[in-house]
Fold these 3 entries.
Entry 1:
Amino acid sequence: MKLSRRMILQGAGSLPFAIASLRAGALAQPAPAAPSEVPPILFVHGNGDYDALWMTTLWRMESNGVARDRMAAINFTDPLARSDDKVEQAGRSSTEDQRRELAAAIVELKRRTGASRVALVGSSRAGYAIRNVIKSGGAGDISHAVLCGTPNHGVFATDDQPNSEFNGRGAFLRGLNAGESEVTPGVAFLTLRSDGMDKYAQADGRFIGKPGTPTGVNVEGPELKGATNLVLGTLDHREVAFHPRAFREIYRFIAAREPARIAIVPEQSVRLSGLVTGTPGGSPTNRPVAGATVDIFCVDPETGERKGSAVYSAKTGADGRWGPAQVEPSWSLEFALASPDAPTTHIYRSPFPRSSEMVHLRAARPLGPADKDAGAVVIMSRPRGYFGLPRDVVLLDGKEPADVKSGVPTDSTATLRLPAGDVGRNIVAQFNEERIVARTWPASENRIAIAELTY
């Protein structure tokens, strides 16, 4: 019997994970006392992202008895950082913008739940907003702060770009890291990091466009003096937040006990809804898009072909919201998104085992010069991790990406530009043991297919 990665993860609830590596300073604070009830939790996304990345984490929390109404995930209005934190930039946010939005979300979660303190869990840049809120007088509202892959000492620490919030030598990070301890008393801090696979914790600058140039930081950059610092092995920058392994440590730290299960418990009936957003001026935002049409189809998981007519169809109003759509937890789905001033985008997703109100849809970028001769364009996306790392096996139609001339994976996506004769055929993407099928659509009609691996 062949064991797939997904089968292993599904069985992980009955087997303890290997103990994470403890770094120096990991025992610098006492373990939080076991609460009678897990505090309300606010999940915070990273640079350019949205709250939907926390979907599977929320499902795992629910599967361990945490009530959905005691959790929230913020959607920053303009999630992308400014190039210069002190200079206003259209469609981008400053550190102060993020601090202000996060502080308001904390107040709202406290009001809704009646709790005096909440726990914060952040991915990447989110850790900056969390630390900024806490250091700016918000410590009394926060019980726990979990920072996943946050470049706490910078993505780089150099003399150029002095006003970048990602510069470890810049005023923003020097302010957060000032003092003998880098954490605020009264709040339990946990950092989760990779053992060498985080592209934003590298001594060489190749991941930030400067190969061969020292960054001034290293793999230990996400750690904080005075925090509990855990190393999760060779997970990547996003996986240290969204992987089941990360979930185990997040839950254990906040609840002060092991999760009863790692696997997601399916629901018999699934309702999906979400938000349509866009990329005005080229910057991804979480601002609502009105007048977008969302059609949902059940598709054959082996071929990507539609099984009948749309199971849901609607147009977004001023709030950009769509749904709810009733689906089965076993269905593979195609979301056809026709958004104003954007290509018609077909998003193929593996089944949704539980309901969610954060199935957010963002149309693909307009076709560019590299796409002009393509008969079809297919984008493979793995939003909870990255393609192409040395430890990964990635196949496109059964071939290594290097053998597919029309597409080479970079970061979290792989783009295939196919000849006209390939329009209408199916493309199979495989990341290790995870597999998804997308159908090709003609680029001449300004259509793009996106296949997203949910787990």
Entry 2:
Amino acid sequence: MLKPIRTVVTAALLTVATFSVAQEMAAGHPDTYVVKRGDTLWDIAGKFLKRPWLWPEIWQANPQIRNPHLIYPGDVISLAYLDRVAVQEGPRDEAPINTIPLSDIEAFLKNLRVVDEFEQLPYVVALEEDRLRSASGQVAYVKGLDGAAAGQRYAIVRPQVTYHRLNPARCCDVSGQRQDDLDFRGRPIRGLEQMWSHLLPAGKGEFLGHELMQLTTATVSKALGDQDQAQGVDVTTLLVDNEGREVRVGDRLIPVEPQPYDLQFMPHPPAREFAYGHAKILAVADMLTTGGPRDVIALSVGAADGVDNGTVFSTWRVGSTEVDRVQTGFDRSPDTVSRGGKARLPDEYAGHAMVFRTFDKVSYALVMNSIRPSRVGYELKHPDAKR
């Protein structure tokens, strides 16, 4: 009795899957595509799907693809038969392609993290021969590492910036103050050596976290012993053992922890809708205030908001509020015009971004595609939000 029912259900599911695939195919998609070295799954999906962030759901509806993540250079993707996706296997002598290139995000996986506090961490109090800076092969003296044993390894990190939620009332006014860049003690300054550029609106909102940048690593070469303490010595000696950025007084230490890279993200829309103004672009890496495809951006939402790796957002320029000159004339200052004499313009679509690293209230995302640059203060919406 059950076997015929299973057969009917399976056939029905495959029919629905085929219909769904047909509905999601982009017009003019190619009949076949040969996967090339340097491709990403997102790029390939963008060649024949209207919504490339849904490629896992569509590809998994086809039994020919055992694992939608394991696509290799040389595989032939065919779309010619009933708009079904099929894979002709190529050689397996190269690594499978990733959703996004490791080279675009490796520094953000390896060197950056966002924490709630850092003041309690051990810190560099002095350097070898009273240097101002130290590099690989030189010694750093650290306070607060009591109990550390010789041979233990630590990452040397530096507080870079303190994130606050953007002021929704001034989300697109970038003429105000910067986000808090931090000095060697972790106190706010206007820094000049930052990984990000955060020209942000004035007015701080909710605290979201402190960002720490990993500079290099060091190994305990001389632990603090009883004899040292008897002589009044209260620092642990570490040898900087890796190339990286120079170490300076005030840098903090955390234990070295292996962080395996997981690039096999499953792209998906956010788990829930956010109140307007809650989810925004906080910062753009290595740019002034804007970023395009393959640029990394920091977002004002994280695990506490239900965001995880693979979450896809669309980015939107927040619509301006303009004075209605037809009603008010051209001689009125905007500051003297009430709300009834102004027009609120609609938000403008910019592109899509996918989260690849998530913290409690902040996440990092990679801009996947765009029709205009994504800018600090832009709104984050569902990837299917109507343009």
Entry 3:
Amino acid sequence: MMNTEGPVARGIRAKLEAAFAPTSLVIEDDSARHAGHHHEGGVDGHAGGESHFNVRLVSATFAGMNRVARQRAVNACLQDELAGPVHALSIQALVPGED
């Protein structure tokens, strides 16, 4: 299977895998749905430039954490991306069995 993720998505994947050892991780680049918005440029400032993502992450690391704590943990892990090329990040953080 060919990897079609761009550099921002690959960086997000690497960080989330290292921090949370997920049993499932889906990263969807949703940037195309935001074409024409003033913030649509991502990594290279061009349309479709990896600026909006949906992440679905299943990890035992989240056990005992409420939804807000899980989101904060993911946001902290990706703070550099959120300060740079990523304008919006939708997070679904689950423990095994919730998926």
